[in-house]
Amino acid sequence: MEIKLSAYAKGRGINYRTAWRWYRDGLIPGRQLPTGTILVQDPDAIQPPSSAPATATTVAIYARVSASENKANLDTQADRVASYCAAKGWKVGAVVREIGSGLNDTRPKLLKLLADPTVSLIVVEHRDRLTRFGFHTAFSMF
Description:
Elements: E1 2-4, H1 5-12, H2 16-24, E2 30-32, E3 38-41, E4 59-65, H3 72-88, E5 92-99, H4 108-115, E6 121-123, H5 135-139
Parallel strand pairs: 4-5, 4-6
Antiparallel strand pairs: 1-3, 2-3
């Protein structure tokens, strides 16, 4: 199923210009109509052929608060992310809750999660839950 590039960007919460750059660089498959409209493949609508084996993806949820007085927010944060994963149809294999500063890069539960080779996707509510600074630098290595 093809959708407009603007709908693709809106559905993923990204800026249209970012989606356009991704299309231009070949990161999003699609085509441009003579009118200039860009249609891209909707990854949510792409179904693998029935003969193809399903890939095993282990999804982990990571929830973090910076101080123990915010501990009650850990469960609600994890619940919101779990609802998101359920809506996407992802099976959650682990839920990790941690109390620690986003500036601290030696959080043991996060480091263990990152080192786990069975985890292929880590879902967080917002990227600052993973790290406060250097998000783009850290994940440009992956």
